[in-house]
Amino acid sequence: MNSKDSKLFLITGVSSGFGRAFAEAALAEGHRVVGTVRIASGQEQFDAMAPGRAKAVLLDVTDFAAIEPAVARIEAVLGPIDVLINNAGYGHEGTLEESPFDEMRRQFDVNVFGAVAMTKAVLPFMRRRRAGHIINITSMGGFITMPGIAYYCGSKFALEGISEVLAKEVKDFGIKVTAVAPGSFRTDWAGRSMVRTGRSIADYDALFDPIRKAREEKSGNQAGDPRKAAAAILALVASDEPPVHLLLGTDALNLVRGKIAALGEEITAWESLTRSTDFG
């Protein structure tokens, strides 16, 4: 790759899962990558992946006050950020009634407010340059829902909507925005990374216990390959006209298409009541 074609990626959450796969793929293609890690021990390991082109930054995306200065330092020392990938996030599992309110706040702090804070920090630089690409990793859970992940789906629905609005706001500045919604991939999302609220209400046993058991058993056996997801991200970055929404995985494709069809049927079934509320 020519140096003029090399981009500087800023990727949050590169210690494992998608973040690590995205970083490895970008480095393999000759790009430079700044990756955020939450534990100092992960810095040296990440830097060693590609000396001179891989740089770890100690940053928790929920430390909102630290984000803007950190991004400004990256721009000043390493150069213009071409691509921001808001990848840092986790899944919370638990029925809504059983799950503490603080768990919802934490879920939104990481999955939504952290991504928005990172975005707000890079936007002034990208806007002045009239160039840049912001990629928000959402989920098929930002389109479809399942019992037991209300907080998670809520956060991903929010990020999908925010991404879509942002794409319209910055289009004339040459900035691209894509919300990438993966299906089930072999990451730690359903394993050690997932926060699970304990069970306390027997009424939910029949509905939720089998779902929790199936999710735990499926962890590590999902159809999605993180390395292929990373290749898809690089194809997205290379595109002159990237989409605002991109699904990853056949399961996401099938489930979201099913949701759209069912929603269309429901809208049609209730159309007369919908129309009844206009002034005559």
From TrEMBL:
InterPro entries: NAD(P)-bd_dom_sf, Sc_DH/Rdtase_CS, SDR_fam, SDR_oxidoreductase. It comes from Rhizobium mayense. Belongs to the short-chain dehydrogenases/reductases (SDR) family. Pfam families: adh_short (PF00106). The keyword Amino-acid biosynthesis does not apply. It comes from the Bacteria. PROSITE patterns: ADH_SHORT. This is Oxidoreductase.
